[in-house]
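To the wet lab folks,

You asked to see what we're planning to order before we commit. Fair enough. Below is the target structure as C-alpha cells, and below that is the sequence we designed to fit it. If anything looks off to you, flag it before the synthesis order goes out.
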C-alpha cells in the first residue's frame, strides 16, 4: 500500500479526548457568553456573527438563541464562531490549554517531516482549531498543519465536503487519509474516495463500527498505512 500524501484529522475523539471538549471547552464558553457579548457585541467581527444568529433564529434575542444551541450542542456555524472567539480569550490568557492524546504530536511531527500534508477537519470553527493546536499541551503545532476546515466547507457526513478538502489540498482524494472516531463521517470520506481509519480510543468509549479499518492510536495508524513512526516519546 502506498502511504497517503495527506492526512486529515478530526479532533474530538480522534486527536483529543471527548471529555476535554464537553467538560472543559463547552462549559468555559457557556459561562463566559454573557460577559463576552456585553464587552464585544459592538465589534465588527462579533456583530457580523450576531447578524447570522438573527437570520437563523428570527424573533429570538441572539444571546438566548446561542444559549439554546449550546445546551443542545447544535452544529450551527455562528455558534461555533462565537465559541471560538470566547476560547481565543481563554487560550491567549492561559486559562485554557488544548488537550491532545500523548501519541498524537510525535506522529504528526514525524509525518510532517516526511512531507505528508496535515489538515484538520472539525465541526468546531477554524478559529477554535487553530487555538487548540496553537496552545496545545505539546506546544504550537500550527506550523506543521497545512489546512483547516469546519462546517463552512460542508457537513462532516457529506461526501462533497471531503471532495472539497481534496481539491483544496491539490491532491486526488485517493491519496488522502481521513481519521475520525465517527463511522458516518468515515462513510462520507470513503464515498469521496479517501482512505479512512476509525480511531477507537478506549478512554473515550469508542466502539469499532466494523465498516472501516480501526486503530487505537496514531502509531497504529502509522504502521497500518505506511506512514513514518514517531521518533520521539509520547508527549505529556
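Sequence we intend to order:
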Amino acid at each position: 500500500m502506498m502511504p497517503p500524501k495527506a492526512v486529515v484529522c478530526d479532533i474530538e475523539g480522534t486527536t483529543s479526548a471527548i471529555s476535554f471538549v464537553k467538560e472543559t471547552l463547552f462549559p468555559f464558553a457557556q459561562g463566559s457568553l454573557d460577559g463576552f457579548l456585553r464587552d464585544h457585541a459592538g465589534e465588527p467581527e462579533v456583530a457580523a456573527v450576531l447578524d447570522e444568529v438573527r437570520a437563523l433564529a428570527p424573533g429570538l434575542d441572539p444571546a438566548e438563541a446561542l444559549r439554546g444551541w449550546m445546551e443542545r450542542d447544535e452544529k450551527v456555524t455562528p455558534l461555533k464562531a462565537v465559541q471560538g472567539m470566547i476560547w481565543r480569550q481563554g487560550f491567549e490568557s492561559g486559562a485554557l490549554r488544548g488537550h491532545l492524546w500523548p501519541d498524537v504530536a510525535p506522529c504528526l511531527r514525524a509525518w510532517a517531516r516526511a512531507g505528508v500534508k496535515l489538515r484538520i477537519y472539525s465541526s468546531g470553527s477554524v478559529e477554535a482549531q487553530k487555538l487548540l493546536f496553537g496552545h496545545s499541551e505539546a506546544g504550537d503545532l500550527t506550523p506543521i498543519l497545512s489546512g483547516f476546515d469546519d462546517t463552512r466547507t460542508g457537513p462532516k457526513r457529506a461526501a462533497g465536503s471531503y471532495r472539497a478538502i481534496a481539491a483544496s489540498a491539490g491532491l486526488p482524494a485517493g491519496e488522502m487519509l481521513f481519521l475520525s472516531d465517527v463511522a458516518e463521517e468515515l462513510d462520507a470520506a470513503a464515498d469521496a474516495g479517501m482512505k479512512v481509519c476509525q480511531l477507537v480510543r478506549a478512554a473515550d468509549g469508542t466502539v469499532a463500527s466494523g465498516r472501516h479499518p480501526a486503530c487505537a492510536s496514531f502509531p497504529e495508524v502509522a504502521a497500518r498505512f505506511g506512514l513514518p513512526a514517531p521518533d520521539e516519546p509520547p508527549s505529556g
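Structural context that might help your review: Residues 6-16+98-225 form a domain with the Rossmann fold fold (CATH 3.40.50.1000). The mean pLDDT is 95.

Thanks,
Computational group
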